[in-house]
Fold this protein.
Amino acid sequence: MASPPPPSSGPASPAPAAATTPAAATTTTTTSSPAAAGSPPAAASAPAADPSSPQPEQSNVQVEVDDVDPDDHDDADSALGDDVQSSTASISSSILKFREENGRTYHAFRDGKYFFPNDEKENERLDLQHHVWLVSLEGRLGYAPPCEIDAPPGRVLDLGTGTGIWAIDFADEHPQSTVIGIDLSPTQPSFVPPNVHFQIDDMDEPEWTFSEPFDYIHLRLMTGSIADWTELFKKIYKNLAPGGWVEVQELGIPRCDDGTFHEGLAIHKAVSLLGAGLEAVGRPLVDVYKLKDYMKDAGFPEVKEKHGYWPSNSWPKDPKLKEIGTWANSSLSTGFEGFLLALSTRDMGWTPAEVQVLSAQARADMNNRRIHTYWPVVCAYAQKPLNP
Ligand SMILES: C[S@@+](CC[C@H](N)C(=O)[O-])C[C@H]1O[C@@H](n2cnc3c(N)ncnc32)[C@H](O)[C@@H]1O
């Protein structure tokens, strides 16, 4: 995964935008010590989600910025990404009566729990985002051993599967495995490999009732959907077979090392509004550098991590980061309206028109190659002991 250099030992400081980072190098860290001893400060400020707050050591990125054409204000979106048909065949009608609001639709099962839409526009964005993950993980679906192509078959659970695209790819790559994807929305396609099954379910249920334990439990992009990560990892631990693996893949709060991403920008305001809204509903954006601590607190003795990041557009000079940034721009810049509409119009007093204006401005900032924002990426994975 294209990643920043290893964490420095001193406090993070703004880095000059001139040094280079190896393009596709991967930073791996392993921790088996009690939580937090050598871990970065919780400086991404997840609770307040303030992108201007101090930043953890891992974020001391030094990426060479590419030249900008004077007329260049826009990384045009890619048109990639196929529609996915919704699976509606066997689903009770109440689950299909999506909440309609401001031209978007939202899940009906456990109405109001999750704030991003579940319509075609959002699903296309999620599928495009899957591609960004593939590019940044160099074609892998994950780093835990069950993702190896020749891994022994097993039972796999994908929590918050969305359009199911990760689960379908995993099932294709591992035809002898059984893959279950669960979500609040029935937005997965009908035509899927025979070894993948989707269920409408709420992962917040205090006890999961799966018939058998899993060999691999995966979750991706669930930041903003989880109230208590340690409790979630405890449930995952309980539902893993001995020797089974968990892997979480997350984006952190966007940041910048050279001051070009600042409070005056719409993108900064949009990110702060999102963070404040999720905080208010008790499902804050997670500090991705704390995920390993939550896993250890839940009982996983050793956690491995890979760090990387997604630039906001093609601003880095390095070709690999430029590619990741181009794709990330396509999937994230189109998302702001969906991220913000329900959260800020339901409880925070915003009008839909105000959200649309801010989202359009934030998108323009995303496309501005003079603003050097990036999203930290963390993949953390751990094994339940063979003899727990
Ligand atoms: C940002 S999407 C990520 C989808 C998918 N993991 C991916 O990487 O493409 C978050 C997904 O989590 C689902 N979700 C949120 N809270 C949930 C819950 N309590 N139980 C089940 N699914 C949930 C949402 O419906 C949504 O599809």
About this structure: The chain has one domain: 45-65+89-383.
